[in-house]
Design goal:
This protein is α+β, with helices and mostly antiparallel strands. The protein has eight helices and nine strands.
Length: 240
């Protein structure tokens, strides 16, 4: 079919009247007809745009209009399929990138699980009771679990721990309770600092974490809310 179209184009170029039209169009776009025909093949969305443009300049009562409409319907299906596959490929790439750059991830986490979805990545500070200090980690949030890693001065990441987000076990406390505040050193009792904290708990591991800002804290809470489409495992009195 491609050869047939190109043969037709060659015929048009030899037609004096058609050549005038083609040359006039080329002056406006700086592209000849061959270039216009090749461009849509390179990207499906361009082909969709071309078909829409052709429909605008085609008599609705003609057979050609009906054929163009059918072609547009088909190309929309192809575009949707391509977009779906691209999204799947992008997600797979994200998981592979994380699996490659983080050392010592336990095999039991199965980062490359085909059903796993990466949600969010960002820094959080964790209160470590043994040292009574905050330690900064990079957290990776997935649809069914969360893990945190340590980053050394040259940027290498090492796995440090994980939480299960299984429904019925995992929950978040939006605000630190007075009991949690009492466990903190007096230097961390300032209301402005306490307001940055929240608690992550899967009944095996409990983390008291602090965001870098209220905006970042709100973003994390929203990410957790969106995972299961609700807030059933998020406790707290303050809406962010």
């Amino acid at each position: 079919m491609g050869d047939t179209i190109m043969n037709l184009v060659d015929t048009l170029v030899r037609d004096k009247e058609a050549q005038k039209v083609l040359l006039e169009a080329q002056k406006k776009s700086n592209l000849n007809l061959h270039a216009h025909l090749i461009m849509p093949i390179q990207r499906v969305p361009r082909l969709e745009m071309l078909l829409k443009s052709l429909l605008e300049h085609t008599d609705p009562n003609t057979t050609e209009f009906r054929q163009l409409n059918l072609a547009l319907f088909d190309i929309k299906l192809v575009a949707a399929y391509c977009n779906q596959k691209k999204q799947e490929s992008d997600k797979r790439y994200q998981l592979c990138t994380i699996a490659l750059k983080v050392k010592n991830i336990p095999d039991t986490l199965n980062i490359l699980d085909a059903n796993r979805q990466f949600i969010h990545e960002g820094p959080l500070r964790v209160y470590v009771p043994d040292t009574k200090m905050l330690h900064s980690f990079t957290f990776f949030l997935f649809d069914s679990m969360m893990m945190w890693v340590d980053t050394d001065p040259i940027g290498d990441m090492t796995y440090k721990g994980s939480l299960s987000l299984e429904t019925g076990k995992f929950h978040i406390e939006r605000e630190l309770s007075q009991m949690h505040v009492n466990f903190l050193p007096a230097s961390m009792h300032a209301p402005s600092f306490v307001s940055l904290g929240f608690v992550l708990d899967d009944f095996n591991t409990l983390l008291v974490v602090f965001a870098l800002s209220l905006e970042q804290k709100a973003e994390w809470i929203r990410k957790f809310e969106n995972i299961h489409g609700g807030t059933s495992y998020i406790n707290g009195m303050t809406d962010l």
